Amino acid sequence: MSFLNFIGGRWVPAKSGRTFPDRNPANQDDVIGEFPSSGPEDVDAAVQAAKKAFPAWRKVPAPRRGELLFRTGEILTRRKEEIARAMTREMGKVLKEARGDVQEGIDTAWVHGGEGRRLHGYSAPSELPNKAGWTVRAPIGVAGLITPWNFPLAIPTWKSFPALVSGNTVVLKPASDTPHCSHLLVECLIEAGIPPGVVNLVHGGGGTVGTALVRHPDARVISFTGSSEVGREISAVAGRMLKRVSLELGGKNAQIVMDDADLDLALEGVLWGAFGTTGQRCTATSRLIVHRKVHDELVGRVVARAKKLRLGDGLDEKNEVGPLINRERVRAVQEYVEIGKKEAKLLCGGAPAGEGALKKGCFYRPTVFDGVKPAARIAREEIFGPVLSVLTVGSLDEAIACLNDVEYGLSSSIYTRDVNAAFVAMEELDTGIVYVNAPTIGAECHFPFGGTKSTGNGHREGGHPIYEVFTEWKTIYVDYSGRLQRAQIDNRKAPGRKR
Ligand code: NDP
């Protein structure tokens, strides 16, 4: 099956006519379809279409723009099972997680549809009589959205829905590993009645389509989720062009387990955090920081359960862990495991899984390393696969220092029954998201999402803060005094003079 770009309200091929295949990571022989291998000329056409559509779209009242998102949410709800199945086939995550990904897109429609009736500014008293001041949020123009493959429906909605309800028009460039999910999202927006040019979809490689979008002078805001390496490049280009840019990058998240924790709960949390989505979440638990008094019991149970996790095609609901996204990722994870074998003790996993039905897929065994030192590379670098590093500590202070001692600051978690310890951790953990007695994964779309340090550039997705990315503040003053009133001057007496 052949798929197309969506530009200016029409489905069109890449101008070059070239395509690339989209493969199922659970069975690389299964080709979902051919997608356009676009170039800078296609990006330019999409940005021009978005620019042309912007003046009319920004005039549509925000509540009406919100209604379009509500309709999109209804369509996504109707098509949830179909899209979830397509996602599992394309991205590999097991079906119940794929349903969760679509549900997050639906929830995002409800949140940002409702924003159409809020988009609050504020008013404040003027310092002068007969003068008023207030603020409104204005759209920026064309938003370039570059998305990864790990949440192939949710992340495009996180970015596009607030961009659209704010009155921006959009050019979406999805990851080359998951173009089909974005195609399905755009189908839903079209059915909901999105006007031509307001949403444009351009498929193709990051180095061509992504770069062209970032460099396009008319794409005034760029929102990116992906690797720190690419994020830095984008930031440099956008910085020179004085573009607004929001970056959601890597993580090296940890779960702390104190000696008073409910170990049954901590066990379920770490298994879900480390091996859910095959460890391919930016919030995945890749470090377990455990108090030495409970180390042996907890780690023994983690390993026993990790060995039993059932790998396989996520469409079979008996399977618990799907494949990695592609063969390159299998190689990258294996490289880290080889490094880990020199740095720590391998307790389980440590190799791809390729027997029987797994032969044609990109499967990797859930892997646990013990005795990992804080300076080890597997304790510091993002692996983005089913690899858990266990570090042992003797106190809360040591646990917090260990958790914070990495370049990233996305998500953290502490399991304890001590309310004082929990509050100290909430205050001291240097991450954008902190969980107490819950794993490092599980964000909800109406709360801010993002992190400190090299996890991003200070912006947040989700909730209200996303509107700092997609809108400009406009301050309006109305002087109804009928005379020139000079702020800071006319309401102050001159030195030495009576008022
Ligand atoms: P990338 O950062 O390479 O890709 C993310 C998106 O950016 C994709 O749409 C990609 O396109 C695009 N892209 C790639 N290069 C450029 C560029 N030079 N300019 C503009 N856009 C570009 O991540 P990968 O998918 O290669 O994954 C690599 C690592 O990134 C992972 O192992 C993980 O560590 C991290 N990552 C983090 C995510 C997160 O949620 N924070 C999500 C995904 C990855 P294309 O797909 O065509 O290459």
List its salient traits:
single chain, alpha/beta, Aldehyde Dehydrogenase, Chain A, domain 1, Aldehyde Dehydrogenase, Chain A, domain 2, seven-stranded mixed sheet, five-stranded parallel sheet, 39% helix, binds NADPH dihydro-nicotinamide-adenine-dinucleotide phosphate
Task: Write the SSE topology.
Blueprint: E1 5-7, E2 10-12, E3 19-24, E4 27-36, H1 40-59, H2 62-78, H3 80-91, H4 95-115, E5 123-125, E6 131-139, E7 142-146, H5 154-165, E8 169-173, H6 179-192, E9 199-201, H7 206-215, E10 219-225, H8 228-240, E11 244-248, E12 253-257, H9 263-275, E13 285-291, H10 292-308, H11 327-343, E14 345-348, E15 352-353, E16 363-364, E17 367-370, H12 377-380, E18 387-393, H13 396-404, E19 408-409, E20 411-415, H14 419-428, E21 433-436, E22 452-453, H15 466-470, E23 471-479
Helix pairs in contact: 1-7, 2-4, 2-6, 3-4, 4-5, 9-10
Bound molecules: NADPH dihydro-nicotinamide-adenine-dinucleotide phosphate.
NADPH dihydro-nicotinamide-adenine-dinucleotide phosphate binds at residues 146-150, 173, 175-177, 205-207, 210-211, 214, 225-227, 230, 233-234, 248-250, 282, 382, 384.
Brief overview, please?
By secondary structure, the chain is of the alpha/beta class. It folds into two domains: 5-249 and 456-476, 3-Layer(aba) Sandwich (Aldehyde Dehydrogenase, Chain A, domain 1); 253-436, 3-Layer(aba) Sandwich (Aldehyde Dehydrogenase, Chain A, domain 2).
